[in-house]
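cron nightly-structures :: item 1 of 1
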Amino acid sequence: MYTMDNIDTNLLRIFMINSRISLTQLARKLKVSREVATYRLNRLKKRGIILDFVTEINKRKLGFIDAAIFINIKAIKQKEFKQFLTETHFVSWVAELSGIWSFGFSIIGKTNEELDNKFLQIYDKFKDAIIDHRFTLHRRSLFFYEKYWGIIQKIKNKKKHIDYKVDKKDKIILQELSLNSRIDSVALSRKISLTAPAVTQRIKQLEASKYIENYSIFVDISKLGLYQYSIFITNKNIDEKQKLINYLAYHKSVSFLAEYVGDQFLEFGLFVKDPYELRERLQEIEETFPNNRVIEVSLFQKEFVSVGLPSCVFE
């Protein structure tokens, strides 16, 4: 495993909060030359620690919803299934799992009916290999991947944002940023026949109107020496749910939270250094909320499609 020093760690910390930062600003924050900052960034990409530069886009403002799919599939078909998910234009975020499920992934659509039809496309293709599955509609998801580096940010209250209606050129900008959050305005201007300043202004409007929520990075946490688990819990006391959500949101080892429509369970990600720490963290949460019941634990073997939006959103 590649051993990172303070410069590498600080670079990752900075990029997790804002992956569109300029190299000049990055070098200033790291207190190194621009050349050193560029070299360190490229090395982290080459070693597979940084997998993607991600733009977090508000899919609901674009008229889309999503569902989480957990599926157990016969081992003989897993390689083909993995390739299929990677190439499918309505799939967002995919992870190989160990535990009850073989894979977890999200699919994107405009209506419940569309999501159902898209899942049936997958099911029909692999029905002879699918052992079991779970289909659940997302209500809300929160991501806290900056905690990998010890950063715990306060959850921002929803501020009033400007009204802005996207056009075709905005959608091209969003699509290009979804593929690479670091693409610059000059490169974008060549794709949509606008000047670079005009592109920059449009990006500012997309940020101010909350179509763009954040710029971050998608990393291979196994190369950070961490294990990540998906935990599903229920709580008999419905009145405790919001307290539990707030507690997990600020817990140092919780990387994401997911609520689902019509289901009482809550999913959260827990990253630890080893399985012994997993047990300690779960006991710690149970002691704070004794009404919790863990119903499912799965290890993320590898995440190989990021949380960025798939191409179907921009078609």
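cron nightly-structures :: done
The CA atoms of residues 2 and 47 lie 8 Å apart.
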